[in-house]
From TrEMBL:
Keywords, sorted A to Z: G-protein coupled receptor, Membrane, Receptor, Transducer, Transmembrane, Transmembrane helix
Protein name: G-protein coupled receptors family 1 profile domain-containing protein
Main localization category: membrane
MF annotations from Gene Ontology: G protein-coupled receptor activity
GO cellular component: plasma membrane
Keyword Metal-binding on entry: no
Length: 239
C-alpha cells in the first residue's frame, strides 16, 4: 500500500510539478526582463521589490521543486548522498522563500504608500530605501537560516539502513514546524501582503476622484495589478 501511494506521489510531482517548474522559471525570467528593461520600472521602488522577488522565486523553484522532480524521475535524492547538499539545500531554500515573501510584503506596502494621498507616506517610496531594505532582509534571513546548516544532518535508520536528511535538534525542529512554516512563510506574509494589496487597490480606485496626473495614475494601476497577481499565488498555496 505504501509503495502504491509513493508511486502515485511521484507521478503527481512529475506530471504536475514539471509544468509548474517550467512556467515558474519562464514567468520569473519574463518578469525580471520586463522590469529591468523599462526605464520607468528601473527607477520605481515597487518594481525593484518585484524584480528581486522574481529572482528569488527562481532560486526557490530550483532548490525546492526541481529537487523533488529529479528525485521522482531518477529516484536519487541528493540530500541523502551529500551532506553538503543536505545542509545547503534547505538553507538556500529558506533564504529564497523568506526573502521572496519579504519583498512581496515590501512591494505591497510600497504600492500602498505610493497610492496614498498623504505626501508623508509617499516619501517612503524611495529606490535607495528599497535597496537598503532588501540588503538588510537578505542579511537577516541568511543569519536566521544558519541553524539549517548546523542542525541538518544525515540520519541512518536502524531498521531500513536508509539515510535521510533531517534536523537533529528537537528545539529547532519544533521551531521550524510551529513558527517558521506556519508563521514566517505562512500566516504573517500572506496577511500583510493581502492587507496592503487590497488597500493599494482601494487607493487606486479612489485616485480617479483626486487630482492625480494621468501617467502617474496609470503607472500605479499597472503596478497594483502586478502586486495583486503576485499576492494571489502565495495566498492560494497557503489555503
Amino acid at each position: 500500500m505504501s509503495t502504491t501511494f509513493s508511486f502515485i506521489g511521484k507521478q503527481i510531482i512529475i506530471y504536475c510539478g514539471t509544468p509548474i517548474f517550467i512556467s515558474g522559471i519562464c514567468g520569473g525570467l519574463l518578469n525580471t526582463l520586463v522590469l529591468l528593461s523599462l526605464r520607468t520600472f528601473r527607477k520605481n521602488s515597487c518594481a525593484f521589490y518585484l524584480t528581486i522577488m522574481s529572482i528569488f522565486n527562481i532560486g526557490q523553484l530550483f532548490t525546492g521543486l526541481f529537487s523533488r522532480i529529479m528525485n521522482s524521475l531518477y529516484d536519487i535524492d541528493g540530500t541523502e548522498t551529500s551532506l553538503f547538499y543536505c545542509k545547503f539545500r534547505f538553507y538556500f531554500f529558506h533564504i529564497c522563500t523568506t526573502t521572496s515573501l519579504t519583498c512581496l510584503c515590501l512591494a505591497t506596502f510600497d504600492q500602498y504608500c505610493s497610492t496614498c494621498s498623504r505626501p508623508r507616506w509617499q516619501q517612503l517610496c524611495n529606490i535607495k530605501l528599497a535597496h537598503r531594505l532588501v540588503i538588510i532582509s537578505m542579511i537577516i534571513w541568511a543569519l536566521h537560516g544558519i541553524p539549517f546548516i548546523v542542525y541538518f544532518n544525515h540520519i541512518q535508520s536502524p531498521i531500513t539502513k536508509k539515510i535521510t536528511c533531517t534536523s537533529t535538534n528537537v528545539i529547532f525542529t519544533q521551531y521550524r514546524a510551529f513558527f517558521i512554516i506556519p508563521g514566517l512563510i505562512g500566516y504573517l506574509p500572506v496577511t500583510i501582503a493581502t492587507l496592503f494589496g487590497l488597500m493599494a487597490y482601494y487607493n487606486v480606485k479612489q485616485a480617479t476622484y483626486r487630482e492625480v496626473p494621468l501617467i502617474r495614475r496609470e503607472l500605479d494601476k499597472q503596478l497594483t495589478i502586478m502586486v495583486l497577481v503576485q499576492v494571489i499565488f502565495p495566498l492560494v498555496n497557503f489555503m
